[in-house]
Design goal:
heterodimer; A: alpha+beta; Heat Shock Protein 90; 3 helices; globular; B: alpha/beta; Transcription Regulator spoIIAA; six-stranded mixed sheet; about 30% strand
């Protein structure tokens, strides 16, 4: 049985005059079996109370799943002593998602684009590329263990 | 995720993926298709009409299976991708690697 997820939702004032928003945080163990439930929980909160499109929901689900998978498998190396933190700022115009692991971090600039013909038969290496294609902005912290993804609401 | 396996009248092994195909469950699909290969099945269709989303690990599992089936002298077709799912294949250029049909019926007719 996977470990339980720790979800916290609270209303907060966003500091930079983007208006009031909701802050959702979720802490999950480094177990890939937890990803689907975590994605559903965060997605539900991200979209609650807003008109949305099927494509926005889909993109949110895919990029969250990717970021959590990277954090659990590559960042924390599935070490059950380590956690992954999700922080979602839900503003009126955009959703800002931060996923942080306890790993050493990586250099996102060193990850090649996996779309050359000779790379098509490769089983790995498409996660970050997909994230970059599906959201409006992607940033990393200096250490490279925290990704921040911004999706504008439709 | 739930996988439903059937065989059509012409002998094609059909696997329907219900739910999400992601890092936590892709091995189930790989095991199911490998078992079919071990039984001697060579023509396979994976249908996504009832799939929510796929992550890059799920795409990677499909790439591995495609390679295995090809190396065994078999054929793999995909079907039932909605616009969003199809966009993942297009963004990653995997639409050039797989034979993709709109519906399972069209895919089966193309074998």
């Amino acid at each position: 049985m996977p470990s339980p997820l720790r979800l916290c939702v609270r209303r907060s004032q966003v500091a930079d005059a983007r208006g009031s928003g909701t802050l959702v945080t979720l802490r999950l163990p480094s177990e890939v079996e937890c990803i689907e439930e975590a994605v559903e929980l965060v997605t539900r909160h991200c979209l609650a109370g807003h008109d949305t499109t099927r494509t926005t929901r889909f993109r949110l689900q895919v990029v969250l799943s990717e970021a959590l998978s990277n954090a659990i498998v590559r960042g924390n190396r599935e070490d059950r002593e380590k956690w992954v933190d999700v922080r979602a700022e839900l503003g009126p115009d955009a959703i800002r998602l931060e996923v942080t692991d306890e790993g050493p971090g990586f250099d996102p600039g060193a990850v090649p684009e996996p779309i050359q013909p000779e790379q098509l038969d490769e089983a790995n290496g498409r996660g970050l590329y997909l994230i970059r294609k599906l959201v409006d902005a992607v940033e990393f912290n200096e250490r490279g263990n925290s990704i921040c993804m911004t999706l504008r609401r439709p | 995720m739930a996988l439903h396996q059937t065989k059509d009248a012409s002998g094609v092994a059909v696997v329907q993926v219900e739910g999400q195909l992601i890092v936590g469950n892709r091995q189930e699909l790989k095991d199911l298709v490998q078992a079919a290969l071990d039984r001697g099945e060579r023509r396979m269709l994976i249908d996504f009409s009832r799939t929510g989303y796929i992550d890059s690990s799920g795409l990677g599992a499909l790439v591995s299976l495609s390679k295995r089936i090809r190396e065994a002298g078999g054929e793999l077709r995909l079907s039932g991708l909605n616009e969003d799912l199809r966009s993942l294949f297009e963004l990653t250029k995997l639409d050039t690697l797989f034979a993709i049909a709109e519906t399972p019926q069209q895919a089966l007719a193309s074998f």
